[in-house]
Design a protein that fits this description.
Elements lengths: L10 E8 L14 E11 L3 H8 L5 H4 L5 E9 L2 E8 L8 E11 L5 E7 L17 E2 L1 E11 L7 E10 L6 H11 L3 H16 L20 E5 L2 E5 L5 E2 L5 H6 L1 H15 L9 E3 L2
Parallel strand pairs: 5-7, 5-12
Antiparallel strand pairs: 1-2, 1-13, 2-9, 3-4, 4-5, 5-6, 6-8, 8-9, 10-11
Length: 282
């Protein structure tokens, strides 16, 4: 663990929480709890470099070993899409696939926000029980990523993530806890270590042509990233600027966007009380 966090710049905490998706939660499992990871990290590279690197799908294999395949299923709006991804076998939990809704937003202070929620899609039906030869469906229940310029050092970038996941397959709780307790003290630290080292190794990004979004209220800045359960990229921009709601969205997506706005606000202001979180790793 110290190999991936030698300077202590990454801090991770874990809680076990029930599915927070309301009416979208699986009623069969009631109040069953799933692991929720909260991490804070500092990347030794400028904000623009970090955003550019993470928005490039070609760089994903260099930092995220937990996504081995991915593709977009449907673009909902220029700033939201439904994605499919697959993870490898992790310890004794066989390979899983995910279908996840992802949403890109830029806050007024320049912070990039990517929120996600597990969903279903008719083009990618899931297998919900482990069967020989089939990949079982898991769920990136809800999560968020906040990427912002370090206010104390313009050459560094602050990163905060929240990831709440259900491995699916109807596994016994003791099995899930055994796997999570083995993986959680290592994988989040490895993720940020890989991001940091790969950005530094890549060096400055080539000059990027200034792009002007053709859609009012959209940012031309590149955004997106990959985590366990999804890989969503907007290399040419398209993220929604905070405080803007397109007229078409008001007619067709008002309910979903209002829920997402509430989601990223709730996630951003999570209680940081370490006494109720179990710190992971060094």
């Amino acid at each position: 663990r110290k190999k991936f966090n030698s300077n202590g710049s990454t801090k991770c905490f874990m809680k076990w929480l029930p599915d927070q998706r309301g009416r979208h939660a699986n009623p069969e499992y009631g109040d069953r709890k799933y692991p929720c990871i909260k991490c804070y990290a500092t990347i030794d590279a400028p904000f623009e470099e970090v955003c550019s690197f993470l928005s490039n799908s070609d760089t994903m294999p260099t930092y995220n070993e937990l996504v081995i395949d991915h593709r977009d299923i449907e673009e909902i709006t220029p700033h939201s899409k439904i994605c499919w991804s697959q993870c490898p076998q992790i310890l004794f939990i066989k390979s899983r696939d995910f279908v996840t809704f992802c949403h890109l937003k830029w806050k007024r202070d320049g912070t990039q926000v990517v929120v996600n929620q597990a969903c279903d899609h008719e083009d990618m039906p899931g297998v919900h029980e482990e069967k020989e030869g089939n990949t079982c469906r898991a769920f990136a229940l809800r999560g968020a990523n906040f990427i912002q310029r370090d206010p104390k050092n313009p050459d560094k970038t602050r990163f905060a993530i929240l990831a709440h996941a259900d491995p699916g397959g109807g596994l016994p709780e003791w099995t899930v806890k055994t796997a999570v307790n083995a993986v959680a003290p290592i994988e989040p630290f490895k993720l940020f270590h890989n991001i940091n080292s790969q950005i530094i190794a890549a060096g400055p990004s080539p000059p990027r042509a200034e792009m002007v979004s053709s859609l009012s209220g959209r940012s031309a800045r590149p955004g997106g990233l990959s985590q366990l359960g999804y890989a969503c990229f907007w290399p040419n921009g398209g993220g929604l600027k905070e405080g803007f709601l397109h007229h078409e969205q008001q007619q067709h997506h008002q309910h979903d966007d209002s829920n997402l706005d509430q989601l990223d606000e709730n996630l951003e202001h999570l209680d940081d009380d370490e006494s109720s979180d179990k710190q992971q790793g060094p």
